[in-house]
């Protein structure tokens, strides 16, 4: 196979699934976010949100998971490059990546709460 020849779809899919498996097995925060995503989507079904609202909640949750995966990649690359050396840029990079996860999590919570508040209000007060 040539160096830059494209791989088959099955191989690419296998690599992607392996990446998800590695994120699940090695990243505690990824597992926590995955459980929270499952719970929020279950609550969405229980509150009978419409399809659009469900998709918005699902997108917000998946965005958090993707940010968590990119955060892990950034941490792995920096750790491999700096090999136990402390560097200010390495710390700043890791902090910014963690901040992206935090920001996406907060926005996801706000989106979910806005949608759920409307459904809960209609359920109990109308």
Please supply descriptive tags for the structure shown above.
126 residues; 85% helix; 0% strand
Task: Please characterize this protein's 3D structure.
This protein is an all-alpha fold. It has a single domain (28-125), classed as Helix Hairpins (Orthogonal Bundle), CATH 1.10.287. 85% of the residues lie in helices and 0% in strands. The chain contains four helices and no strands. It has helices at residues 9-26, 28-46, 51-82, 88-125. The model has no long low-confidence stretch (mean pLDDT 91).
Please give the number of β-strands: 0
Number of helices: 4
Q: Mean pLDDT across all residues, rounded?
A: 91
Q: What kind of oligomer do you see?
A: single chain
How helical, in percent, are the residues?
Answer: over 70%
Separation, N- and C-terminal Cα atoms: 66 Å
What is the general shape?
Answer: extended
Give the name of the CATH architecture. Answer: Orthogonal Bundle
The major pleated sheet works out as: none
Spatial extent as radius of gyration: 19 Å
What is the strand content?
Answer: under 5%
Number of domain modules? 1
Order of helical and strand elements: HHHH
Category by helix and strand content: mainly alpha
- Spans where pLDDT lies below 50 across 5 or more residues: none
């Amino acid at each position: 196979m040539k160096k830059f020849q494209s791989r088959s779809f099955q191989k690419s899919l296998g690599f992607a699934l392996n990446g998800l498996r590695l994120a699940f097995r090695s990243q505690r925060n990824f597992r926590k976010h995955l459980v929270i995503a499952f719970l929020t989507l279950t609550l969405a079904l229980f509150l009978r949100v419409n399809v659009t609202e469900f998709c918005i909640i699902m997108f917000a949750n998946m965005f958090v998971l993707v940010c968590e995966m990119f955060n892990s990649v950034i941490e792995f690359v920096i750790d491999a490059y700096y090999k136990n050396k402390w560097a200010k840029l390495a710390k700043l990079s890791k902090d910014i990546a963690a901040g992206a996860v935090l920001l996406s999590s907060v926005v996801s919570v706000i989106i979910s709460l806005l949608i759920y508040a409307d459904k809960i209000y209609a359920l109990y007060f109308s």
